[in-house]
Amino acid sequence: MSALPSTNADGETRATAKKPATIHDVAALSGVAASTVSRALSTPGRVNFRTRARIEAAATELKYVPNAQAKALSSGQTKAVAVLVADITNPFYFDIIRGTQLQLKAAGYTQFLVDTEESKEVEVNTIEQMMQMADGVILTAPRLNDEALVLAATKMPLVTINREVPGIPSVLLDTPTATNQALDHLISLGHSHIAYLGGPGSSSSNIRRWEALSTAAQERGVQMDRLGPFAPRTYSGDAAADALVYSGATAGIAFNDLMAIGMLQRLAARGVRVPEDISLVGCDDIFGADFCSPPLTTVTAPVEQAGRVAVTMLLSRINPGVGTLPRSQSVLPTHLTIRGSTGPAPLRP
């Protein structure tokens, strides 16, 4: 007497059960290329909303499980790490991305790169998605508040760059020390009225720099104005430059190089000479800072190293007991690079 064929959870017999759907099946049903399906499911931000929705509906209908998720189900790891940057067009992040990419590749991991567009909502949504697709997340200059970051860290391994939150591993670039060097540099040139052109109010780096500068200025007996906030983009340089001129300060320290470069352009258009009339300092030493007219005095930081260190710290939590012992924080030194945008304070009647 022959045994009845066994059935699976969906009521199909083993003999008639369908093979698992492939990425090509999803592509055919949704009417797109397989590469588009891969992008939609791995880095959703790179695919427009309507196409992504169509692909996700097809994947659900076919009960498609991406390879990364299949590995996660079987081994507990995807061998992928998500790197979230606030603005992928900002050259500051180029070296961070390069550092994380090289360090992850050396460890046998894939990098998912996401531009969060300086949006808290995008950060939250991406972290939720990456819980199924990545083993951990590196957040560069996150805009989420401390409570949201702590909650996210309870759900998956997480490391921040340029953001200090108790209980979360972090890599910090010690830019406050170098901005104080910039202040001393300007004072040595005879400047006694200096302005700080601030960045986003939600930026931890912006807060740390202003606190350091305001304290140091008070200790040194010079006037320090806080102007802004301004967007950390070149286009904000117009408003920042006008505010600097109106303030009467003879020197300015900008939140980042992009803003400072925009300021140089605006000051030139107004006929304000740099550094003869106003001195200017940037921050980050991005590619192109030394090509400006005049070349930009700026804060230089080991940005690529920050990306590498962040990966090392994250992998030590993904794979505890393997390799180096987990560190809770790493602070990397910075320094002032002096170029042609700073000079002696102008003589005032």
UniProtKB/TrEMBL annotation:
SMART domains reported in the protein's UniProt record: HTH_LACI
Transcription regulation is among the record's keywords: yes
Molecular function per GO: DNA-binding transcription factor activity; transcription cis-regulatory region binding
Keywords linked to the UniProt accession: DNA-binding, Repressor, Transcription, Transcription regulation
Annotated InterPro entries: HTH_LacI, LacI/GalR-like_sensor, Lambda_DNA-bd_dom_sf, Peripla_BP_I
Pfam family, any one: Peripla_BP_3
The keyword Ribonucleoprotein is annotated on this UniProt entry: no
All copies of domain HTH lacI-type, residue ranges: 21-75
Entry-linked PANTHER family: HTH-TYPE TRANSCRIPTIONAL REPRESSOR PURR-RELATED (PTHR30146:SF148), LACI-RELATED TRANSCRIPTIONAL REPRESSOR (PTHR30146)
Protein name from the UniProt record: LacI family transcriptional regulator
Species per Swiss-Prot/TrEMBL record: Arthrobacter alpinus
